[in-house]
Specification:
Its EC number is 3.4.24.-. It is a single chain. Helix content is 25%, strand content 36%. It contains ten helices and 17 strands. A hairpin with a 4-residue loop joins β4 and β5. The protein starts with 5 loop residues before the first helix and ends with a strand.
């Protein structure tokens, strides 16, 4: 990875000027929308750019440079709403977009829940969240890094093929502005490395991968470490077998444990609730998880994957409990869903920001991954799930899975072609432990999660 001085970077970094230009365009279009008769208006504008390089077997497969622009406008005539968007920032295109949004709004039905968020909720403080770290890497350097990652993985005995390595550098600028006078600017970078390998022979082949995702390239694990991890995961799956049908404890690896928390988010999000399509309808103030467990939103973590000073409607973000002492403390709402439910926005228009899963005030010993295997004892470690067998309406959960059978806290052998099933209500209530092995590559920050019991169906 190349080094560049802060002075060099500031000379080349035009992000602030680009943000200023987007903000000026947004404010101008909002003024024109008001002049055209709109009672309210909002604009979301963005510029995203990046480099993506794929290599396989030491050769370059693809190189892609991207630079995408977006300009979305929503106008309100009373409670009639119209939206239009364009990727062209030329004045004529922006005027056509405005004309189209206004025309749509004039012919739509009134929606009592439509409109901007409460002006009193607009963010007025914008601390630096350390999310802007452009990666000064060119195509040749990215290719070199991708080859180094793949070579590290392919050097392991037993690795027979490769699906390739990928190096991606990305950065994005966005402006949200509305007719309350709010103008919010955000800029962020996200970079990733990945490698997928194949092991085995004609009697059975296994594929697995590993990746890293960071805000700043200096936070990456080394090319060798990533290649080693991908190879170790792939080789560990060789000789996988099925299991007979049984009920047993199940440990979800950290990268899958965050998916369980994602199902909770789906069930407590406004859209599912006002449509009455959630098994957690009317559950605020009720226990949904063990009394020792807390889940907190921390939207302003420095360098966090989901850090933001305001949500997609300009509402200020703040630290807030989602689950406190096992009890569901609130829902996840933007202003529209909040109005549909007769509630207030939770500052989550556009999604959640940095959710942290951790034991609360009740004493709960925590373990690293090895300790979580010991806590599991004899049961199933899940490292992969597949399929879409999860119902937010009923909570029913049934998915294909692969992983490892564990005996007395030690991995015994790999397993595949199994199905794991239960109900999310029982799964959440049956959480036995959460590990300290937190996966930092997501906005959902959790370690491995041990469930008391699930049905495992195999042979």
């Amino acid at each position: 990875m190349s080094e560049v001085t802060s002075q060099d970077r500031s000379t080349r970094d035009s992000s602030q000027q680009d943000l200023d230009r987007l903000a000026e365009l947004a404010e101008d279009v909002i003024r024109r929308a008001r002049a055209a008769g709109a009672s309210q208006a909002e604009v979301a504008a963005s510029i995203d750019s990046g480099l993506s390089v794929n290599v396989r077997l030491g050769e370059v497969e693809t190189v892609e440079h991207t630079r995408d622009r977006g300009f979305g406008l929503t106008v309100y005539f009373g409670q009639r709403k119209g939206s239009a968007s364009t990727a062209d920032l030329h004045p004529d295109s922006l005027q056509a977009t405005l004309d189209q949004a206004c025309a749509i709004a004039r012919y739509t039905e009134e929606d009592p829940a439509a409109g901007l968020a409460d002006p009193a909720r607009m963010a007025d403080a914008f601390p630096d969240l350390d999310t802007w770290h452009p990666w000064d890497i060119d195509t040749a350097q990215a290719i070199e890094l991708g080859i180094a990652i793949e070579e590290a993985g392919r050097a392991h005995a037993g690795i027979t093929n490769s699906d390739g390595a990928c190096v991606q550098a990305g950065q994005g600028l966005s402006v949200y502005a509305n007719s309350h006078g709010f103008v919010g600017r955000e800029r962020g970078t996200r970079h990733s490395l990945s490698l997928s390998l194949i092991a085995g022979d004609d009697d059975g082949m296994q594929r697995d991968y590993w990746y890293d995702s960071v805000r700043a390239a200096g936070d990456f694990i080394s090319a060798r470490a990533l290649g080693d991890k991908a190879a170790q995961r792939t080789l560990a799956r060789v000789g996988a077998r099925s299991l007979s049908t049984r009920q047993c404890p199940v440990l979800f690896a950290p990268e899958l444990a965050r998916g369980l928390i994602g199902h909770l988010l789906s069930a407590v999000s406004g859209g599912a609730l006002y449509r009455q399509a959630s098994f957690l309808l009317d559950h605020v103030g009720k226990p949904v998880m063990p009394a020792w467990l807390d889940i907190n939103e921390r939207p302003r973590l420095p360098r966090g994957q989901g850090s933001a000073n305001f949500d997609a409607e300009g509402v200020a973000t703040c630290d807030s409990a989602l689950v406190e002492g096992g009890v569901l403390a609130r829902y996840v709402l933007g202003s529209y869903s909040a109005r549909k439910l007769g509630l207030a926005s939770t500052g989550n228009a556009g999604g959640i920001h940095n959710l942290v899963v951790e034991p609360g005030s009740v004493d709960q010993s925590r373990h690293d991954f090895a300790g979580m295997l010991q806590r599991l004892g004899t049961g199933l470690l899940v490292t992969e799930v597949m399929g879409q067998g999860v119902s937010t309406i009923t909570g029913d959960y049934s998915r294909g899975a692969a992983g490892f059978w564990v005996e007395n806290g030690v991995i015994a052998y790999p397993v595949e072609e199994i199905t794991i099933a239960a109900n999310l209500r029982d799964m959440f209530a049956g959480i036995v432990a959460v590990g300290t092995d937190v996966d930092p590559r997501s906005h959902i920050l959790t370690g491995s999660i041990l469930l008391e019991r699930m049905t495992v169906a195999g042979e």
